[in-house]
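ping. complex inputs:
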Amino acid sequence: MELTKTEEDYLKALFHLTEESEADKAGTNQLAEYLGISPASANNMLKKLKGKALVAYEKYGKLELTGQGKAVAVRLIRKHRLWETFLHQHMNFSWDEVHGVAEQLEHIQSPKLIAELDRFLGFPRRDPHGAVIPGADGEYDTPPKATLSSLQAGDACRLVAVDDSSEALLRYVSRIGLALNSRIQVEEIHEFDGSLSILVEGVLTMVSKQFADRVFVEKL
Amino acid sequence: MELTKTEEDYLKALFHLTEESEADKAGTNQLAEYLGISPASANNMLKKLKGKALVAYEKYGKLELTGQGKAVAVRLIRKHRLWETFLHQHMNFSWDEVHGVAEQLEHIQSPKLIAELDRFLGFPRRDPHGAVIPGADGEYDTPPKATLSSLQAGDACRLVAVDDSSEALLRYVSRIGLALNSRIQVEEIHEFDGSLSILVEGVLTMVSKQFADRVFVEKL
DNA sequence: TTAAAAAGTTAGCTTATTCTAACATTTGTG
DNA sequence: CACAAATGTTAGAATAAGCTAACTTTTTAA
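pong. complex structure:
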């Protein structure tokens, strides 16, 4: 079944909202907001994707991808992350530059190209932002990710991944001296707004809760 | 100015018809036929491209690209051929497999990616089919190409390029023992249908005129 | 528990690109 | 030169995807 770029984008967005986010965040409105379109347009496409058995969906019901729909989304994520890895390792793209171009490249249709790219890159397990790359067989265990914001004062952790959807966020991460595998020490959590004071390379920095929500860590 | 994939495809087709083919071959009908659409659709798009100053065009007049239109087309050809080279050299694609995927890749928008790809490939001058790759500055002298069909009986030549638009043609070229730089000896030209008997690696083969029209050579 | 707010849906319109069928112009030939 | 064939153009409809405005259903909270 041939899908348009638009349909693929919807499936990826749905996967993000239903499988990779906290629950409840998966409604017509969230989908529309995420894609920057009107709820009416989202509703329209949902009906179409339901017709193609990619989305399980009843009027006023909750959104969910079918097995097929999930498989398509996971393939797209695999392609996206392989391309990001390629851009970063061989095309001299910094980690905040890769996302936009990978958004285009992920729609290229060629199973052979993806297989060869995977081989060329040495079968990488993670992309430049630390995100796991789904396997060729569709294997993709969303690893339980702890956010920096979920830690307590006094905890230490290692940065394992960063949400790649915002260039500004990635630039900020680099700006304050962080990179994959950086050690972070949580000094204090401020009650009034949830912001954190963290210690990075001996330097004390304060980061917002919104920031800490998008930074994934492994507790040490 | 942002162009759609469709508009880009029209410009590339127009470049092919007006700059790279024998003259007279550039009418609404030829364009439609080349793109596999109806003449009405071609006419429609020509009006739109005229509005964007990419095509110089008057009702019932002949088709021609403006300087801008040509520049867009040449950039596309550059991207297409760089990707073909990448696929062939690093992704284990045979020369008859590269075209289709390159048709998709050529629409990726990222000047940086193209510059880096060029560097990564070592600034190649020709693609896997022997076609010249336009420069980053838009430099592209369509080299005067002699077709195999333009030779006389007794002439010898070297194969310098093959039209890449048909996979079947490329497979056939390999099949009869030809590759870039192969030496070809024209033994005889048959009057009744223009077919040629040629000597390749000591083996005598007969090829059709249509075939010989798409094989480019340098006379020795 | 009921009414306002939030969320979701529908109807009807817009733009891009395609088509077919009908019409207009140009070309080529007897 | 005249008219048929070839070529090119227009009109009107279809499909995909988006929008706004109006309407319906569900949720929330007083």
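The longest helix of chain B spans residues 67-90.
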